[in-house]
């Protein structure tokens, strides 16, 4: 099994910055894609950003130019630098990783427990 542990959420004022981290551990052979999704109260979960093993990135329209995703393949860790935060960025942020397990070579699609980000004055 593959576990994801997120950190870095919290309360920040509008215009501020936060950095989220997510470390994957367990029976990992390779991770194809790591990413962040978010879910605000009463809304569906939406894409924030993803990054492939080669560094290719994809961002949701609402965060382009403000958020930056990066990845340390040696540590199986993904980061999300969030700048110019807005109240509408308030949500629970979930880490996701898709890859292949080392023992069975079975594909996995794992989620973290979520970390709260609140943007408010």
What's the structural blueprint in terms of helices and strands?
Layout: E1 2-7, E2 10-12, E3 18-26, E4 28-39, E5 46-52, E6 57-59, E7 67-72, E8 77-82, E9 91-101, E10 107-111, E11 115-119
Parallel strand pairs: 2-11
Antiparallel strand pairs: 1-3, 3-8, 4-5, 4-9, 5-6, 7-8, 9-10, 9-11
The low-confidence parts are: none
Helix proportion: under 10%
Main β sheet profile = 7 strands, mixed
Q: What is the oligomeric state here?
A: single chain
Which overall shape is indicated by the principal axes computed on the Cα atoms? elongated
Number of helices: 0
Straight-line distance between termini? 40 Å
**SSE succession:** EEEEEEEEEEE
* Strand residues, percent: over 45%
Class from helix and strand fractions: mainly beta
Mean pLDDT: 97
């Amino acid at each position: 099994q593959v576990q994801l542990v997120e950190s870095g959420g919290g309360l920040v004022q509008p215009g501020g910055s936060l950095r989220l981290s997510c470390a994957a551990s367990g029976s990992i052979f390779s991770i194809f894609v790591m990413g962040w999704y978010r879910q605000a109260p009463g809304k569906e979960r939406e894409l924030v950003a993803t990054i492939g093993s080669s560094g290719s990135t994809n961002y949701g329209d609402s965060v382009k130019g403000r958020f930056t995703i990066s990845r340390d393949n040696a540590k199986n860790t993904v980061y999300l630098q969030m700048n110019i935060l807005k109240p509408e960025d308030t949500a629970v942020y979930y880490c996701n990783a898709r890859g292949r397990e080392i023992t069975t070579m079975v594909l996995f699609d794992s989620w973290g427990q979520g970390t709260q980000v609140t943007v408010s004055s």
